[in-house]
Structures are given as C-alpha cells and as structure tokens.
Automatic annotation (TrEMBL):
Ranges of residues in domain Acyl-CoA dehydrogenase C-terminal: 252-388
Entries under Pfam families matching the protein: Acyl-CoA_dh_2, Acyl-CoA_dh_N
Protein name (record): Alkylation response protein AidB-like acyl-CoA dehydrogenase
Entry superkingdom: Bacteria
All copies of domain Acyl-CoA dehydrogenase/oxidase N-terminal, residue ranges: 34-119
Keywords noted in UniProt: Oxidoreductase
Species of the source: Subtercola frigoramans
Length: 414
C-alpha cells in the first residue's frame, strides 16, 4: 500500500449521498470521520513529505471546507466555536492537515474581517459554491510585498519565506504596502498563475505536510476594486479589522490541544497493549497498567489537559461571540479582553502540550521510541509550530493585563 493509499481511497462516496451536517454536533462528528481516515497513515504520509493534495480533497469531499460558508451559497452556516472544535478534532489525527484547515478558515473569514459588504458577498459565494481552499502569503517577519499602481490595477511583487497552504490552495491571500505610502492592502487572487511561484522547500522537523514553504510573487495583478476594505481607494478602519491575529492565535491553541490529546491517547493505547511492567522495582506488578508511576503519570497529564481544554473551550466561545457580533460594535477594550485570554490559553497549552508529548515516552517504555511506533510525531509537530512566536511575550501580555490593566496593543502577533 502506498504512503497515501488510505487517504486516496477515501472517496467522495462516503458522503456523496448525504446532506451536509446541520448542527454543531453533526459537524464535529463529520470531522471525527475525517480524523479516523487521516489517522490510518498519518505517520507514513508525514515521512513521505509530499504535498497533501489528497488530504485537502478529503476535506473538500467531507464538506468541512465550507463549514463557515453561508447556507445561502451551500455552506454550513456554522459559527467559529464549531470551526475551532473541528480544527482540534482533525489535529488529533494529523496536525499538519489541522493547520491547513485552520488557516483556510482564517483566510476564508478574512474578507469579513476587513472587506466591504459587496466584497464579503462576492468572496463567500465564490469559495463556498466552488469549494475552494485558501492559502496565505502574509508572513509579517519578512519584508512586505511591494505594490505598484497601474491604473485600476494593483501589482504585487516580493518574496515570503513562509506561505501556509502553498501548492494545495485554490486561492491565495496577499498583503503588501503601496509604493510611496504606508498603506497595507490585502487581496485574494487565484493561486494557479505564473506570478505565484512556490519553492516547495518546506522540510522541517514537524508539521511537514502544512505546505508552509517559501513563495515568490512576481507581477501578480489584482483590481483596485478587490482591495479588501477599500472604497474609492480609501480604507475605512474598524477595531474589528484587527481580530485576525487573536483569531489565528486561538486556532493555534486548538491545534496544540489536539496534538496533545492525540499524544496521550496514542500513548495510552500503547501502554494498555504493549508496555511491560518493570520487574526490578521491589514492588512488582503483573501489568504495566498496575504500575503506580504509570498511573500517576497519566493522571497528571490528563488533569492538565482537561484544565487546558476547559480554558480553551471558554475562550473559543468568547471569541466566537465577538466574531459573529456586529463589526461596528467591537470596542478596543472588548478586543483587548479577548486577546489576553487567548494569550493565556495559548501559553498554557503550549507548555502543557510539550510536557505531554515528551512525558509519554516515560510512560510507554524504551520500545515505544521505535520509529515504527511513531510517538515522536506529536512532539515534532507541537515543538515546530509552537515556535511561531515567543511564549514569554504572551506571558508578559497577561502579566501587564493583571498588574497594570493594560490591553495588548494590536500588532502582527497580538
């Protein structure tokens, strides 16, 4: 069986005769079906490190891609609290695909974050009716793309060292600065065009199928009319526009929780079926599941993850409520209050998740370090993505909020 055989044989017939889920519980159940398929060969696909075209097709066939799309255009019409739960569910089985799906949801919502009402309607109809998948070339650590103005067209040029979604996306979000100004402009363009050149150079420790390699943008054109949030070439800002960063940070929290939950579940199954009791401790047990230190270890890890899950669930609900409220109603304080809660959730699950992904080796035994077991995939994935931005700055944001009442200032990372 080839590395991608399980995913590739998961044909649309699984769901072709079924209507889209109609409730949050049904959508999460659909995500669990997808996760079961992905889990079958997640390790083999990770090692093969091929562009996950079949995996993204699976997301499309299952309907998950249009979960947030308006029902009027054939989408699920769901809220963000459900989308975040779906990202977490998929990430338990394959965190790379969970990341791709989370970023897709982010960029699909980007037009609501910064667009005008006509732009929102046009983009949501386009991606929902055609089941299109989003990627984005908006890494803020690199220099901005440059934008030149040619009549009624904007022309983008530059390079980004990270571009999640890459070769498997149908639409790409670009961001740059207009020449001679400090004006940032977002546009959504078709991915399949000569001016977008992906290097295919993502070869990292973890999240290996997230298609996060570099991209060169060479003369990509977009109409001024598609510049998100602009009317007559003038941008009218709202506090709501700055929710993109808190939103992506909370997507991260759900990816990390999914990884940690997956690690503990996989380790527990190995302990139940394979780990042997230690015969030299003076308190010999027949089964590993009777060992005090193993029971204690799993108890500690699961207690922390339950606490993290409770916090993340609550913050998911808080953020979802903000995202689905009237855009004009969002205040700087409300934005800051939810952003600091997101910072707290992220730093907590990043640290506890890394502990879980490491501690599981102590609870499973030496033979569990075999490459064929593959427990390393959880630590590799979480360690890689949790380096996205330094946790000490999240701790500082929470500390300043508690001690000084200071709200996190909107930036590319807060």
């Amino acid at each position: 069986m080839s590395d991608q055989a399980v995913v590739e044989t998961a044909t649309p017939s699984l769901w072709a005769s079924l209507p889209l889920p109609s409730s949050a519980a049904e959508w999460i159940a659909r995500a669990e079906q997808v996760a079961e398929i992905l889990a079958e060969d997640a390790l083999a696909r990770d090692r093969a490190n091929q562009a996950p075209h079949a995996e993204v097709q699976l997301l499309k066939d299952s309907g998950l891609v249009t979960l947030l799309g308006p029902a009027a255009f054939g989408g699920g019409g769901q809220e963000w609290v459900t989308a975040l739960a779906v990202v977490r569910t998929v990430s338990r089985a394959d965190a790379s695909i969970g990341q791709l799906l989370g970023y897709h949801y982010l960029w699909a919502w980007a037009v609501r974050l910064v667009g005008t009402e006509p732009q929102i309607a046009a983009v949501e109809e386009l991606y929902t009716t055609n089941t299109l998948f989003f990627g984005g070339a908006v890494n803020p650590r690199d220099g901005d793309l440059t934008i030149s103005e040619e009549g009624e067209e904007l022309v983008y040029n530059g390079r980004k060292s990270f571009s999640t979604g890459g070769r498997i996306s149908d639409l790409t979000v670009l961001e740059g600065v207009l020449d001679g100004t400090e004006t940032h402009i977002f546009v959504i363009v078709p991915t399949d065009q000569p001016g977008i050149q992906f290097a295919g150079d993502w070869d990292n420790l973890g999240q290996r199928l997230s298609e996060s390699g570099s991209v060169v943008i060479d003369g990509v054109r977009a109409d001024w009319a598609s510049a998100a949030g602009f009317e007559n070439k003038v941008y009218l800002p709202l506090t709501y526009n700055s929710l993109n960063v808190p939103l992506v940070q909370q997507i991260f929290s759900n990816i990390y929780l999914g990884i940690a939950q997956g690690a503990v579940a996989a380790a527990a199954e190995y302990t139940r079926t394979t780990t042997r009791a230690w015969p030299y401790g003076g308190d010999n047990k027949q089964e590993a599941t009777e060992e005090f230190y193993i029971l204690s270890g799993y108890g500690e890890l699961q207690s922390k993850l339950w606490a993290d899950e409770a916090l993340i669930d609550q913050v998911d609900r808080e953020l979802s409520a903000v995202l689905h409220a009237e855009r004009e109603a969002l205040t700087e304080k409300a934005r800051g209050d939810v952003a600091v809660r997101i910072a707290a959730a992220k730093l907590r699950i990043a640290e506890d998740g890394l502990e879980a992904a490491t501690k599981v080796f102590e609870l499973t035994g030496a033979r569990a370090s075999s490459n064929k077991v593959g427990l390393d995939i959880y630590w590799r994935n979480l360690r890689t993505h949790s380096l996205h931005d330094p946790l000490p700055y999240k701790k500082r944001e929470v500390g300043e909020y508690v001690l000084l009442g200071a709200l996190p200032a909107p930036s590319w990372y807060t």
